[in-house]
Amino acid sequence: SFAYFTIKDRLPQILTRVIDTLHRHKNEFFEEHGEKGVEAEKRAISFLSKLRNELQTDKPVTPLEDELPDAALWNQYLDYQRNLSNGNGEPSWFQSPWLFVECYMYRRIHAALAQNPPIDNFDVFKEGKAQNFFESQEAVITLCTYFQELLKNIKDLDEKQLQEELFKLLQVSLWGNKCDLSFSSGEDSSQKSSPLQSLENMIPYILVNDMEKLWSTLVNAKKRNTEKSNVRVDIILDNAGFELLSDLVLADFLLSSKLADEVHFHGKSIPWYVSDTTKHDFNWTIKQLQSANHMWMSRCGINWEGNLKKGVWVYHDHMFWTLPHDFSSMAEVAPDLYADLQKSNLLLFKGDLNYRKLTGDRKWEYSVPFHQALNKFHPAPLCSLRTLKSDTQVGLKPGQGEQIQASEPEWMVTGKYGVVQFNAAL
């Protein structure tokens, strides 16, 4: 299966890159922290080499031994996995659910650094994320320019034109999800071509297209909400780099078109899945745009910094997003986060990992309804914008998945297909 290939080949490659990254920064650690920095680097590398060996030789998945705030929740979850294995011994790397061991690996990478001050705040994936952003420069300029030109006459657009522009930017944000470094094991995955040119040709590859429902949700929320209450949209972020930029443009459009009054972003509290967005990546991206020597890029950066200062954009991170749990257990495991999401008029979940956690990462029949796979998770109306990079997909028409499977056996894992899949809260 694709899961087997991921655990056997991709994850060890990612660990090897992390170890190389630490090696390469040895001098920097020495300059900043002296011998203590070098000692910490050696300890972290030894911890990661041991982890790689455990993975490659299919050792049991061991409880976390660190004192980090989420360790107890992780170890409870590991106990739960043990009980599932029906007494077949300890869950090991190749005998456990893919989603669990993949999340577990990233949590152990985090521990390797967090337990080794003074390099405990070093993000081993930071360089790759920055590189993805810089290598996508042309696409970034194209999108910022398009958007700033659009803003000049956004007030004159009628409802139909607004809808068309929203659908365009939703698609840019959807296909921006192809730029995923955990998927390419850290290899270049930047956006090279114009993100707007090929949208028309990509429509047939959107297997579920609920953009109309998303539009109706926003328009109805606007009509229902009196002056007193704001329309709020939440974006649960995925990758930094070009994808994050496409999400920020979408968020600015929602405010500028008055479809929303506030946008809340949810990122990861620790470096995660190679290219996932952390608070540092979020702020760094806006700073890069501000200081760019391109008029429309810097205009975007300045406006977005302003949105954060005014409080119409709010960035959050929560430990729950980097736990191994499905979202169906959020109300129980992170009731504070669930209650916060209930205040939203629309939740946009970006990317493949969020989709896997929404649907419990099971091998569903393709035609199982989306709401059934969500397993009672419905804090608010929600929509998944996701390109397919793993073996889970629901909500297709009968026969649709089988038909593609017949001509393209790899269709679920190449990122070629996408969904804009909506579920109204109950």
From TrEMBL:
GO terms for cellular component: nucleus. Transmembrane segments: none annotated. Residues 6-404 form the Damage-control phosphatase ARMT1-like metal-binding domain. It comes from the Eukaryota. Its EC number is 2.1.1.-, 3.1.3.-. One of its GO terms (biological process) is methylation. Pfam families: ARMT1-like_dom. GO terms for molecular function: metal ion binding; phosphatase activity; protein carboxyl O-methyltransferase activity. Subfamily III proteins have a conserved RTxK motif about 40-50 residues from the C-terminus; the threonine may be replaced by serine or cysteine. Belongs to the damage-control phosphatase family. Sugar phosphate phosphatase III subfamily. This is Sugar phosphate phosphatase. It comes from Stercorarius parasiticus. The gene is Armt1.
